[in-house]
Amino acid sequence: MSTNVLRTADGWWVVRGERAVPIDTKADTTAELITDRDAVREAAVSGEAGAPVADLVALSPVTTPCRVVAQMVNYRSHARDSGFTGDIPAAFFRKASGSVSGPGDTVVRPSHVKFLDYEVELGLVIGAPLPVGTVVEERDLPSYVAGLVITNDVSARDVQLTKTQFYESKSYPTFTPTGPYLALLEPEDFAHLLDLRLKLSVNGELRQDRTLADMIVRPAQALTLLARFQTLDPGDLLLTGTPAAPPSRRRRSRSRRSARCCRPP
Q1: Residue 90: which residues within 8 A CB-CB, separation 6 or more?
Q2: Tell me, what DSSP letter sits at residue 59?
Q3: What's the average model confidence in pLDDT over 212-237?
Q4: Which of 65, 103, 215, 239 has its CA 20 to 30 A from that of 97?
Q5: What are the tens digits of pLDDT across the range 168-222?
Q6: In the prediction, which pLDDT does 115 show?
Q7: How many CB atoms lie within 10 A of CB 57?
Q8: 249: pLDDT confidence band, cut at 50, 70 and 90?
Q9: Percent of the chain at pLDDT above 70?
């Protein structure tokens, strides 16, 4: 069973329901915590009462500096909504690790940016070195992926669309809110990976909703393709793409667009 881990200014915690137990570890970085799984497991079964999770201020469970790599157009629903047809080639881009921020931190819009956008994504936290040339099979995932995090791939769309510049438009400070939890996985958890569902709501309105089964390039294949040219190390982060809106919202959006298009002058 996976273990949810929280990071605060005081250290690392295992989350057990509404309370969190401190982990007795000297780990400062995510990579160091991954190597101290015994301490995580001891905290998970500890009899200590711990502290209320609501009283803790969560930092990103992915520490920086690290590599932050992202997949483009990696959900079939997103590809359809974006107008892609036929086969969608695997594509990656980088984000500056300085964009990683805590889950409750304010997203800061630079003064020259007018159009911010959201994209919920599942992040894979690398647990072992992935040298160039590595081939990752499905059965190998537990050897290379330590855990999962929820992220928001915030984008300055006006910068991205006018300059065709992914790196800048997605790398401003606070543009990758991450967490609150790092879900450290056990080998048996990977069998259920594609059943996970990503949801994002804005002011109570559901905007994105799909399971990972909608992915075009799944994690093992993505790591293999990435390893053709990119080394990854423990603690690095791979964002696996974003899904489209739920079908009901897409229908409403298309109806509104149609009404605007067809309104007489």
Answers
A1: 71, 74, 216, 217, 221, 222, 225
A2: B
A3: 97
A4: 215
A5: 999 999 999 999 999 999 999 999 999 999 999 999 999 999 999 999 999 999 9
A6: 95
A7: 12
A8: low
A9: 93
Query: Could you give the 3-state DSSP secondary structure of residue 243?
Result: coil
Domain boundaries, the chain: 3-55, 68-253
The angle formed by the CA atoms of residues 107, 29 and 195, to the nearest 5 degrees, is: 70
- Taking domain 68-253, whether its CATH number is 3.90.850.10 is answered by yes
Whole-angstrom CA distances from 75 to 3, 7, 20, 35, 212 are 27, 30, 34, 32, 8
* Weakest mean pLDDT among 9-13, 74-78, 132-136: 74-78
Q: How far apart are the first and last CA of the chain?
A: 60
Task: Return the H-helix or E-strand segment holding 14.
Answer: strand 11-16
Residue 236, token pair as written in the block? 């690095």
Helical residues (DSSP H) of the chain, grouped into ranges: 30-34, 37-44, 76-81, 141-144, 157-163, 166-169, 219-226, 247-262
Nearest to 193 by CA among 147, 134, 225: 147
Give the integer Cα–Cα distance in Å for 242 and 208: 8
Is 256 or 145 the better-scoring residue by pLDDT? 145
**145-152: strand order across its sheet:** 51-52, 19-22, 11-16, 3-8, 182-184, 145-152, 120-126, 237-239, 68-71, 92-95
DSSP letters spanning 157-215: HHHHHHHT-HHHHT-STT-EEB-S-EEEPPGGGGGGGGG-EEEEEETTEEEEEEEGGGB
pLDDT of residue 250: 53
Phi-psi region of 54 (alpha: psi -120 to 50; beta: other; left: phi over 0): alpha
Separation of alpha carbons 254 and 235, rounded Å? 41
Single-letter amino acid code for the residue at 207 = R
